[in-house]
Amino acid sequence: MRISKSIKILLGLLTAYLVIGPFIGMIAWFSFMFMAIGAVEYQAAPEALVIPAVFLPFFLFIICTSFLQIGLTAFYLTHVILNKSGNDVIRVVLGICVFFFPYVAMPVYYFIYILPVNPPRWALAVNSGQIVASEQSETDPTHPND
Asked: How far apart are CA 25 and CA 52, in angstroms?
């Protein structure tokens, strides 16, 4: 599959966001909660601050991140299936991991198969139909079992 450089960069940024997003969400959640606690100390109504300032943006953040994860999972699984130049074992393992461990497998797959112009030699497919012998066998074509 050929992917343009701008799409590769966008895909890398979205994949990085998917990995870093939960940490950003936790930091935002705790900072909003401390803001709500601070509002109580200043005699402000916490529900006036918590609902619009905490739950709504955080809810939208979670929804957008979830849709992004579903979209990236579909993209990476499609790329795993259509990438015939990749090693079958690596593709299958990364395909399963993209589904179960997307925060690890998506960046790994991105750096192995999508970002480089040519993937590393160890990640390329091996022609399984050919048997390579280290030395020439001297068999008689009239008696192949000897």
From this structure: 16
Task: Examine residue 141 and state whether it is found in any structural domain, yes or no.
Answer: no
Assess if residue 99 is contained within a domain: yes
pLDDT in tens, the chain (146 residues): 688 899 999 999 999 999 998 898 888 878 877 777 766 666 656 566 666 766 788 888 889 999 999 999 999 999 999 988 888 889 899 999 998 999 999 999 999 999 998 888 888 887 655 444 455 555 555 655 65
How many domains is the chain partitioned into structurally?
1
Residue 103's alpha-carbon distances to 20, 26, 47, in angstroms, are 9, 16, 34
